[in-house]
Amino acid sequence: MIHPANPESIARAAERLRGGELVAFPTETVYGLGAHALDARAVAKIFAVKGRPYSSPLIVHVASLAQAKSLAASWPPAAEALAQRFWPGPLTLVLPKNPQVPDLVTAGTPTVGLRWPAHPVAQALLEAAQIPLAAPSANRFTQLSPTAAEHVRRSLGEELFILDGGPTDIGLESTVVSLTGAQPLLLRPGMVSQPELEAIVGPLLSRAEEMSVSAAPGLHPQHYQPRTPLYLVPSLSFVAEKNVAFLALAGQSAPEFARTLYAKLHELDQQGWDAIAVEQPPPGPEWDAVRDRLFRAAKKD
Ligand code: TXA
Ligand code: MG
User: pTM here?
Assistant: First the structure.
């Protein structure tokens, strides 16, 4: 059920999370499906509700830098520098995990993805619950991520406790950077861009494109998909068929286009089109995250 976020509903949600139940909540990127990150039985419910394979690790959301550090086995200078610059915000740092983080959260890997979100409702919930929250995007596996409470309800059902904080601001999932090797590695592009990261920590390795599913846990090539087939086209003149929706860039900047992309795809997906044609984003690192999600959304068998 959808509950408008206010101090009372946030307190109830926090109580549920402490008791091992699931709660969907807004972050500045997309809505998350949260569970007590240190309670393996609670975390198992996430995989069941999403239909998600156990090979996909979950991001652990924290209320402070201190809480993030308490969940990592080490905290290299690059983690400190990136956290100081981008937290709270849409950046996930993958670090060696502390033994208290259940293997279920990390898909059996010795690393954990950590994020301190910037959304005021997420922050209030984390502070009220006083526990770290494992939270993937609150959608069924491979489907589009939700950027509004209604998207969550449609994907995961009426039974779920959903905190409604309105439409999300960034609209695409966080940037994921691994700090477990000799050089930082960009695992998933996001609206914190590669040049912004490199300004803080120097050159990044970027393997997202060629990495296999097993090498990049959770980065399945077919992901973020609407039910309606999606294609990328250079312009409207490439759309020949009649019953095809066209989503234009319309002169928007990358952050502007990203903010409403999923909401528009959710909407078009409800309208019975034969296909959705999306205008190809221009080159340039600020479009990397949008391009990544659109390629995955367009990927066919
Ligand atoms: O913006 C976001 O990141 C949203 C909100 C809710 O925070 N969450 C999200 O979660 O997108 P999810 O589960 O849909 O994507 C998490 C991805 C995984 O699929 C994986 O690629 C990466 O983050 N990840 C998490 N933990 C990791 C780890 N220990 N090692 C490698 N990659 C990891
Ligand atoms: Mg997801």
Answer: 0.94
